[in-house]
Amino acid sequence: MSDVTHILSAIEQGDAHAAEKLLPLVYDELRKLAAQKMAQEAPGQTLEATGLVHEAYLRLVDTNKAPHWNSRAHFFGAAAEAMRRILVDQARRKQADKRGGQGRRVPLDAADVGFTSPADELLDIDEALTRLATEDAQAARLIQLRYFAGLSIEDAAEVVGIARSTAYEHWSYARVRLRTLLGGG
């Protein structure tokens, strides 16, 4: 059993000090995943990769919820889901009526009738991903791990627990289906 898996097991059993031991072991990998995702975000983002990692980590090791981690891969899969939820929640907050709702600041020289904000795109992707999950949960999980966590297909296959060849088939299908759900034809 790896150190990470052992510590995750201790956290599950309620050891509050185990969470302190876990962060140094997984921080670099979580930071790398968050940096990959934040590189895809628009400039001027108020959330940075470090903040995303810290928020996701706090959600993952909340000892009051007694999480159950089967393995290191399961933990990183949950980290991808936590990062997705954080980014989607932030996009929703940005569009909330008390923060201007649908209004957007656009410099006059950059005004374009077809302007779409990254928050709109993220919410559209999240909605399409939720619809895809009702049709094919594994395909949706692969998209989530690739898009929100930046995992390779091989790593995502390990997290989902399927063969690489199956992951490639699901990935091909999921990309086409997601494009269709997003209105790309």
Characterization of the model:
The protein has 185 residues and is an all-alpha fold. Helices cover 66% and strands 0% of the residues. It is built from eight helices and no strands. It has helices at residues 3-12, 18-39, 49-60, 72-95, 118-135, 137-147, 153-160, 164-181. The longest helix has 24 residues, at 72-95. The model is unreliable at 106-116 (pLDDT under 50).
Secondary structure: elements and pairs:
Blueprint: H1 3-12, H2 18-39, H3 49-60, H4 72-95, H5 118-135, H6 137-147, H7 153-160, H8 164-181
Helix pairs in contact: 1-2, 2-3, 3-4, 4-5, 4-7, 5-6, 5-8, 6-7, 6-8, 7-8
Q: Ranges with pLDDT <50 over ≥5 residues? A: 106-116
Determine the fraction of residues in helical runs and give it as a percent range. 55-70%
SSE-based structural type: mainly alpha
Overall average pLDDT: 75
Helix/strand order: HHHHHHHH
Over the alpha carbons, how many angstroms does the gyration radius reach?
A: 18 Å
Helix count, per DSSP?
Answer: 8
Biggest sheet details = none
Beta strand count: 0
Mass-distribution shape: globular
